[in-house]
Design brief:
Layout lengths: L5 E5 L6 H11 L3 E3 L2 E3 L13 E3 L2 H9 L3 E8 L2 E6 H9 L3 E5 L2 H11 L3 E7 L3 H11 L4 H15 L7 E4 L3 H16 L1
Helix pairs in contact: 1-7, 5-6
């Protein structure tokens, strides 16, 4: 096995990054998903250790103090997210490459930390309007939360040029094919 690498998928909420990450995980057995830590409450159906490691704010702060995170940030007030160094090392020890589904700032922080060993991919919605429709159709957020996500998305879209690759997700099948090519080029 060559040295383990990192593939970082970032996007505004609703752009389709999770769908594309799941697609790659179903196609390639040399990838493993990095489970992030967070301080928010689990959503319906989410499992600790599978979707996230759900921590109390105190547990999270202690891990920050102990330098246990490769990256972390407070994404929304009192909602911290982070990637444990031990999670990356665990996946590399299995002989696999790490794949992330992570917010834009976290993605850029990982890319800055790991440099050439990491590929950063920005998944871009066709438009902010299309994103708003997707988020509304998801039916998981209150009106207030939707407005917050859309405002955040508008800011996040400005970071797209800082990523190694930009995939515009206006046609899911086309986007899946494109990510397969981009990842193959980086890993194979």
């Amino acid at each position: 096995m060559k040295e383990g690498k990192l593939i970082i998928f970032s996007a505004p909420s609703g752009a389709g990054k999770t769908t594309l990450v799941r697609h790659l995980l179903s196609k390639r057995n040399d990838l493993a998903f990095s489970v992030s830590c967070c301080t928010r409450e689990p959503r319906k159906g989410e499992k600790n250790g599978v979707d996230y490691y759900f921590l109390t704010p105190e547990e999270f702060k202690q891990k920050v103090k102990n330098n246990e995170f490769a990256e972390w940030e407070e994404v929304y007030e009192n909602h911290c997210y982070g990637t444990l160094n031990s999670e990356i090392e665990r996946i590399w020890a299995e002989g696999k490459h790490v794949i992330f589904d992570i917010d834009v700032i976290g993605g850029m922080n990982l890319k800055n930390k790991f440099g050439e060993r990491a590929l950063s991919v920005f998944v871009q919605p066709p438009s902010v309007e299309a994103l708003a429709v997707r988020l509304t159709n998801r039916n998981t957020d209150s009106e207030e939360k939707l407005k917050m996500r859309i405002a955040k998305a508008e800011k996040e879209l400005e970071f797209a040029p800082k990523f190694d690759e930009i995939i515009i997700n206006d046609d899911l099948e086309k986007a899946k094919t494109e990510v397969e090519k981009v990842i193959s080029k980086f890993l194979d």
